[in-house]
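Structure tokens please, single chain.
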Amino acid sequence: MNSNPLVSVVIPTYNRAGVVCETIDNVFQQTYRNFEIIVVDDGSTDDTLSKLSAYGDRLQVVTQRNAGAAAARNHGARVARGEIIAFQDSDDLWMPAKLERQVGLLETDRSIPCCLCNVVVRVVAGRQITSFDWSLIYPLHEEGIWVNVSEVLATRFVLFNQAVAIRREVFERIGGFDEGLKYLEDYDLPLRLSLEGPWAFIRQPLVLYHEGTPESFSQQALRDPIVLKECELRIFEQMRTRVKKGDKQGSTQRQLERRLSMLRRQLAATKLRKTNSVLARALGGCLMSADHYHMAAFRRSPWFPQPITIPARTPSSSPSASEPT
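Here you go.
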């Protein structure tokens, strides 16, 4: 077992000259030092490349024609040399111990495909709101092994890209990000990854999330609700097929069937709300409200799955703090 594996940090960027350097400088503050940084410029038209050139050989810059974040992350993973890949968005920040803690957990058990940490998504009245809060994920342990990942992710989304450290061979085996999806590739990948076995997790927030600007792709998705919902429906239909083929436990299958029924209702309601008919829009609104209350009741029911977690084994040795390659 390599107790000091190389981590490849992949940062896709597009016209983020004003913020990408802050993110890169932040990665260099990691306490775990055996990493490489790969920045994938997705066809920027501003002075991003000029900003990146100032780092010289401290990082690797690869370029591509504008093809989207999924393609950029896959491109970065293809040139990565590390055993572990960590993705970071070009405007988010990591706490200094993120990689060290994630590598430490991954090194306790080579069968674990990835490690997911919590994320600060907002601060309200001095209180941190985290991605685990948003997703109603409340593990009993500070860190450890999350056993029923597929069952939980069948019922809700959790911030993934900037919070995960994933074994490269697993990422490659499951095919990386789906470049055919216009939206939600960051939901599709963790669903597929959930079928690879239990995950390691860290309850403490080790990522600071920067909410997207009105021009960001995440905000664009919200303004394109029909395509967004069609992408989600496609993802879950494919997930159901994978679970059936893999003969997984019935609990995940039941949650997927429930989710698919909900998504079909939501897609129908969304289409109604986009018509010119006042009556159709009103009906669509009623359907969406009914579905909202149905989901709220489900979340309070005993059938809403909660994470099953166990403590991780104590590693025999901590990762070394050698200098980055």
